[in-house]
Amino acid sequence: MTAITLDGVATARAVKSELAERISALRSKGIVPGLGTLLVGDDPGSRSYVAGKHRDCAEVGIESIRVDLPATATSADVRAAIADLNSAPEVTGYIVQLPLPAGHDENAMLELIDPDKDADGLHPTNLGRLVLGIEGELHSPLPCTPAGIVEMLQRYDVPISGRHVTVIGRGLTVGRPLGLLFTRKGLDATVTLTHSRTVDLAAEVRRADIVVAAVGVAHLVKPDWVKPGAAVLDVGITRVEDPETGKGRLTGDIDPLVAEVAGHLSPNPGGVGPMTRAMLLSNVVKAAELRA
Ligand SMILES: Nc1nc(=O)c2c([nH]1)NC[C@@H]1CN(c3ccc(C(=O)N[C@@H](CCC(=O)O)C(=O)O)cc3)C=[N+]21
Known about the structure:
Blueprint: E1 4-5, H1 8-28, E2 34-40, H2 44-60, E3 63-69, H3 75-87, E4 93-96, H4 106-112, H5 124-132, H6 144-155, E5 164-168, H7 175-182, E6 190-194, H8 201-206, E7 210-213, E8 231-234, E9 238-241, E10 248-251, E11 264-265, H9 272-291
Helix pairs in contact: 1-9, 2-9, 6-7, 6-9
The structure holds 5,10-Methenyltetrahydrofolate.
5,10-Methenyltetrahydrofolate is lined by residues 48-49, 52, 95-98, 120, 144, 173, 250, 268-270, 273-274, 276-277.
């Protein structure tokens, strides 16, 4: 048996074409959505993600505003840039690219973002609304990677309600909010949130109908850990050097042989990453629609 591929590129393309229509409707009413990015320092990975976000915006008709600060920027510089983004009328939503260079207090910076402009859903108010289950008229953006994972499973008709989900990793952007999202009313999964101190990770994965790995340990999840037919989502990113070509490439947390056991498998790259970017655009569009 070979798993059905959860194709993040194709699914993100479908999401983006739906968004493009909503954006042209907004534009015809004179509303122009604009995504800002704040990047501090010159980490090549972060640079390439930010560049990707600007390309996505151009593709769907969202304006994008790029603010880059040098690695030498102080916390006062970052605060000032956030204040400018909060007050810039052309910026309807923005993100602070993580991780910030060492020496910056990320949580303190996230807290300075205007919650109404928080395109990542990482401001404490928006994370609090996720805990409280508040949706609707209030703009309560969901963190992009968790939202992208759920969107992809739903578009492939993978059942979630009542199913057991094992999440590997408890980080701010993926594992922690994903556990909150999957257990909300309406999704109704049962979640095991595992981390580096989990005693028997293989056993926790074996009970799962849906496995999400978001730790950044290359090929951590082995085929004999996976229940036959389970849906497996590969989120972790590790940069490795190909021993044959000597070129750098990206690899995920899932051993490739898991494809022989799983029912659905998201490749990495080409799976959750593109969905994360599509959900960022979706948050910007929703915020603009609510303001209209
Ligand atoms: N404030 C903030 N919000 C984020 O959402 C955020 C962040 N900081 N910091 C870093 C992580 C990582 N992340 C990715 C998004 C898309 C891809 C993506 O589209 N990857 C492509 C491959 C890209 C390539 O080849 O370089 C793929 O999976 O196919 C990857 C990684 C968002 N993050």
